[in-house]
Amino acid sequence: MSTIDKVLARIDADLDQSLDRLFDLLKIKSISTDPAYKADCAEAAAWLAKELTSIGIEASVRETKGHPMVVGHRKSGKPGPHVLFYGHYDVQPVDPLELWNQDPFEPTIVTRADGTKMIVARGSADDKGQLMTFVEAARAFIAETGDLPVDVSVLFEGEEESGSPSLRPFLKANHDELACDLALVCDTGMWDAETPAISVMLRGMVGDEIIVKAASRDLHSGMYGGAAQNPNHIIANIIAGLHDEDGRITLPGFYDGVIEVPAEVTAMWEKLGFSAEAFLGEIGLKYPRGEKGRLPLEHIWTRPTCEVNGMWGGYQGAGSKTVIPAEAHAKFTFRLVGDQDPVKVQEAFRAYVRSKVPADCTVDFIAKEGSPALRLDFDHPALKKGEKALTDEWGKTAALVGCGGSIPIVGDFKRMLDMDSLLIGFGLDDDCIHSPNEKYNLTSFHKGIRSWARVLEELAKD
Ligand code: BES
Ligand code: MN
Ligand code: MN
């Protein structure tokens, strides 16, 4: 039996134990945005450091101003690339809790009507189940062969879901320890349940929150209505002006740096046979929104967006209250593509907002640090190896896809550590990440582990 076949056989034989370990991690309530779960985040970090060390990847918990990082190494100067595997142990909040069919932190295996077995728990797909695919592959490799085929470092963070505020300072302070030849990231999806994928484009993001204030207190809307400014209306006006009738974003200079995808890439994507009906149908919708004249795949992969993620102001309780609120709020995020500059987008947004706020009113901004979009060259040597490994495992050619979501760190890997990222993940559109009843298919977990074993093996080859 070849080495890789032995490693794969061990992965198959150990699957139940691998699941037990994943369940232990899923039980930890590592919600990074909510300070109430700070100790849980620390517990998840400690659990991972212990786990890595026990399999032979010497790891430690590293404190930051926020939640801790976990860093591990197993390197001996082997030929081939030294890779840094990245994942995040933090998860999104679980609300609305009443929509879960179970406790989000009591993982269970659920069998769907079509026979699909799924691991249901918060973080199962984003990102604990995914990061454990790599850990389990490394475990099997070391247990079976005594070593990993290439030098490996590991970085797990606990603030991805809250914008990774501690990450830049950490990368800066630990540059030499973390700068490897290539980052491996398991936090994206497959093309469909049978077809593996490598994400060669990832959208960037920049966000802003605005608070518009008018009168010095909430007012009676009869007594002052018509004379006093209403911040809700001002924010509505701001939002309404952000898109034109063709769905394009109106901010001056916004499309600077947006790159048209080469025709051969679009042609490759056309062959994937994307169905907008199925994509939207699964979430109860029918008609694609977004820029006119663009395909839905472009809407989610290659075009920038502006979304209002939240807006509030005035009376929200039962019944009515005739009030003009003193202030109103809205949260915005822009998804970025190509070479769009997050700083310039934010400046253009703020200038536009200020121009829409009447005299007598004020606007305050709460910034979120941005990250630019990322692309991997189509002739990157690691891409070929990743494709080969995935195609061997899944029996279907790996698709090279875009990813609409964002992983802030990968931009920093490139800019700060001059390191490209190979984005391979096993999530599916119906995994409900960030939503109630998040799940990860058992097949994603099992074949995900096998895939990483094959990727490591391929990377070691010349
Ligand atoms: N794993 C996701 C990114 C993702 C989303 C990949 C969808 C593939 C498909 C990641 O954990 C995430 O949620 N990122 C946030 C970043 C934000 C909180 C800074 C996002 O994209 O909104
Ligand atoms: Mn994630
Ligand atoms: Mn996420």
From TrEMBL:
Q: Which InterPro entries match?
A: Cyt/Met_Dipeptidase, Peptidase_M20, Peptidase_M20_dimer
One GO molecular function term of this record is: dipeptidase activity
Matches recorded under Gene3D superfamilies? 3.30.70.360, Zn peptidases (3.40.630.10)
Domain of life per record: Bacteria
Provide the leader sequence positions. none
Q: Which Pfam families match?
A: M20_dimer, Peptidase_M20
Keywords in UniProt for this one? Answer: Dipeptidase, Hydrolase, Metal-binding, Protease
Q: What class of enzyme is it?
A: hydrolase
List each copy of the Peptidase M20 dimerisation domain by range. Answer: 203-360
Alphabetical list of SUPFAM superfamilies matching this protein: Zn-dependent exopeptidases
EC numbers for this chain: 3.4.13.-
Name-wise, this protein is Dipeptidase
Organism, per UniProt?
Roseibium aestuarii
